[in-house]
Amino acid sequence: MTATDSSIAIARVAARAAADKIAQDIVGLDVSERLALADVFLIASAPSERQVNAIVDGIEEELGKQDLRPVRREGRSGGRWVLLDYSDVVIHVQHEEDRVFYALERLWKDCPVVDLQLGEDTSAKAAVSSDSE
Fold first, then answer.
1. Any domain includes 133
2. Which of 9, 46, 54, 62 could form a disulfide with 17 if both were Cys (CB 3.0 to 4.6 A apart)?
3. Mind listing the pLDDT tens digit for each residue in 84-97?
């Protein structure tokens, strides 16, 4: 079994919203065969708590336009690791230090990567933006 088309579509909208807020290293993982609770994990990171929260705001705003609301949200007050649970899609926005430490991609390395169709390297986009600051 693989992730549903609707889960992948939600992950792509969320990934584009994260990219618009200069998220780094955006990755989608199809966890449907390993985890009964979700189809896709979307992981993104940022260099500061403020940017983590901005990315989360952007994702919630874009998915809200499709009448999607998270069933659970955790970590918002700390801004280090925010989890947005949209049932079939679980979004992790992490401070870059926490992302390295917890290494979710390593834990789920056997899961296929979802093509998020971002069309450009978001890491390069983030580097350009930070250079201009």
1. no
2. 62
3. 999 999 999 999 99
